[in-house]
């Protein structure tokens, strides 16, 4: 288990996203308060540009998504799948907060977030 | 008389005496029906000005000029072949010989005569009433006199605490006078309000600095010791003042009728029948001078009805069409007096044996009373002070005459958008008189969207206030039919943009959490997250209404890609920076400064179609530094990232151009500075040309202004881009102040009523009645909204802020621009990201770009290159509203 401390929990904006460098990779972190904290690759798979942390959070089809700020494809925060294009998906990371610190597990998970 | 005659001089003669609001309305209707061709029409007005908007009379004090109030002009009448004689009083009428005489002894004969002489202020016969600076409040001329008198006055008294008296008091207050109201009755507005309501109104008005003296009759006005006058009262007290305005009621101007034994009422007023015909053949009386079933109607709407009725009777004589009848009018009123909401409905002062419900809330300063019949089952009257939000529902209940099924107090505790309270024939849209049944019928017939209902019933296409209600009725009807209801803007709201705007406005909602909590669907409210459709929309509405800093904590996470970081997101994830260059005018020093900043940050530099300079390739974290430098050099944000005013393009105009007739650059700068920062359903572009050669291409803009030798012509609803449209000529030869007044009104009306991402061009086409309707709302103020629209615009203008300046001044906002929580961990930069060409930096082509988006599942995708530089999800209904623009500032 490679849990890496990234930053203080207090450094995360609430209900918004921010990016973090994790072992040389950009990861988008979304802190949705009581609805959980999520981490995914920051790169928008449709364009290859690192912008997902700047996307808007959306509640659609019973799941939570981030809309890419570039072309508005929606990626699930819980399974990485893109709504508009089945062939696109984003890698998810495990993330948790402990003792005021944000920890990310660099081992990629295919789907479910464990927090 | 048989009226169909041919040959020019054989046309029958139609004379109209009085060119007030009603007389003018008569002429307008006459021309609309082409009847100006069939009659030789002459109009006589005592006043030196042609018809103006008396209802808005007090606005004169805002500008000190009647310009904005004018309804008619001699030229316009002449164009329609009508002669308007101003400053001409008709002093004698001879019904025997069918002639009228003016005070300078001219004579005219008539075949049809319309008396529209209005009324005059009643001045009680008090000793000293003719002393100088004892004035009345009825005409522009009166107001000019009051303004002049106020210059040398410290205090002013209004005699009469009715509706008009309070309006006059407000005027004195704004003229800076120590203001008093003296009322004979024990309370204010004795005609409309009961004692308690009058008391509350009195408290509220005193809180504004007006002294109210009730139960006082003035017995004499004599010379004062400390002021010009001393007013003596019946209780042996007195009050000194420099200026007195009488507002003790009005009397119908019926002198001409009396001379000829035309039937008049006991207490005045020219008696008319259901066709507005007087007792003399071919003589009609309309408006405030007319008495119908022993009643005078002191409001403009019934006067307009009489004008139409009289006209239809005249037309019937010509063409044999059926004449309509006047059936009386409801005198319920709702207004804001000195900022206090006051409404009265029906028998608002109560009556014998009435049952009542009274709610008096001294904490919020509201008072409401309902009057019910003896059985307590029917609403007969109501009075509301301090909060008139129940007015429409109550008025409906009253007018419908339906039995109240629940305890009457529930009428005051209704959810403002609970349509179940409406009966089938309740009027939902009062602008267009659409009933609930009309809407239900169309929904059952298959029109399931608000847009479709607006189209076919006109409901919600007026002031838009009923939009939310109409939507509810649609949803309910569909549910009753077992149909799945059409969704609103997105899966979280069942409302369209206009309805949401209205809800935010009336409920004072200014954050997304409350909006989704209160008006979102059940599921949406539970999660509270919303989506990329409703959040930016809400943010835009909040800014249109409150104009708060867009990145304030409660708004920041709502903003779309560009607004979210106050820059325009580019394909490589960098931003572009566009400072405002109002009117396209820039000093060499600023140009140099801009160049230096661009050079320092290696920004790709390009001149946009909107005559400003766009700097590309700034990383998110670089934005604050770049803007700091720009602001130090005197620049401010250009709002290129917002759905807001972009640019006001201009040609060089009369300052340099040989052909120019006005200073188009000066005007462009003024307009751009006035409207900068206004958040709207979509971006807005203006242009100003200095003469008809139109070098600024103003007709392709949302708002186009073209100079004439007399002023400015205003065009509305132009568009460039994918769906080009020439703007419609809205008004001609406007003065600068009227031009801005119209633009103020148009823009706010647009932000209130347009759909999401609807440009003005499409909006204008979608308005039922199109350009003429817009003119009637903006110029004629048919919806009575103009003042409200202007106030809202004033609020936006006065709360303008450069969002970048605010951001830089507040470190807590600046953290938003740190893209990474742990920037020190950044790996070495990927130098391959950029290439150089033609002396500037460009992104190396990454994959993607708007052309390669694949679209699945979700309705439709289209490109609005200017929007966010991106594709946006739109419902198919909205597709036609979104367009890619050529002059984009991506
Ligand atoms: C301050 C103020 C606020 C008001 N607010 C409202 C409101 O909120 N809502 C509302 O519905 N109503 C309001 N009213 C009332 C409304 O203005 C009148 O109902 C309306 O103007 C009546 O129109 P009219 O054409 O009948 O009369 P007027 O507008 O009075 O016009 C009559 C014209 O005829 C002219 N005239 C008279 N005799 C002769 C003659 N012998 N020869 C030639 N010309 C003659 C007069 O000079 C005058 O110009 C307000 C009025 C005032 C003064
Ligand atoms: S529009 Fe008229 S004033 Fe403006 S540049 Fe062209 S010719 Fe000159």
UniProtKB/TrEMBL annotation, chain A:
Highest taxon, organism lineage: Bacteria
Stretches of the chain forming a coiled coil according to its record: none
Gene of this entry: nirD
Pfam families: Rieske_2 (PF13806)
Domain Rieske: 3-104
The name this protein goes by in its record: Nitrite reductase small subunit NirD
Organism: Shewanella canadensis
Keywords on record: 2Fe-2S, Iron, Iron-sulfur, Metal-binding, Nitrate assimilation, Oxidoreductase
Biological process according to GO: nitrate assimilation
Any GO molecular function: 2 iron, 2 sulfur cluster binding
From TrEMBL, chain B:
Nitrite/sulphite reductase 4Fe-4S domain segment(s): 642-767
Gene3D superfamilies recorded: 3.30.390.30, BFD-like [2Fe-2S]-binding domain, FAD/NAD(P)-binding domain, Sulfite Reductase Hemoprotein, domain 1
Domain of life assignment: Bacteria
Entry's cofactor comment: Binds 1 siroheme per subunit.
Residue ranges of every copy of the NADH-rubredoxin oxidoreductase C-terminal domain listed in the record: 332-394
InterPro entries: BFD-like_2Fe2S-bd_dom, BFD-like_2Fe2S-bd_dom_sf, FAD/NAD-bd_sf, FAD/NAD-binding_dom, FAD/NAD-linked_Rdtase_dimer_sf, NasD-like, NiRdtase/SiRdtase_haem-b_fer, Nit/Sulf_reduc_fer-like_dom_sf
GO MF annotation: an example: NADP binding
Annotated ranges, domain BFD-like [2Fe-2S]-binding: 427-475
Family that this chain belongs to: Belongs to the nitrite and sulfite reductase 4Fe-4S domain family.
Xref: PANTHER family: NITRITE REDUCTASE (NADH) LARGE SUBUNIT
Protein name: Nitrite reductase large subunit
Organism: Shewanella canadensis
